Amino acid sequence: MTTRVIIKSADWALRTGGGEGAPEAIFIVECMTYHEESDPADDDRLEVELWALKHTGSNPSHRLFKLKTESYWRTAPAPGNPYKEHESSEPLA
Ligand SMILES: [Zn+2]
Question: CB burial class (10 A; 0-12, 13-18, 19+) of residue 88?
């Protein structure tokens, strides 16, 4: 027996950036000596850079850090997609 899969799709556009309700990015820095981490900072890399500098100031042998960045993508209906006309994220009947 053969199973057939039909995928119905609509046109969607993908863009980077959080937009409303989400930051553009969240930054965290990790000290690689004992894996201590800074607090996460929304849209402000300077905050974690200062954390790394202060951390080395308090622990002069801790000099290697890993910057972790989370960024967000958002989808939106493209022209021709029925959701674009209805401006709704609710499923269309
Ligand atoms: Zn450290």
Answer: exposed
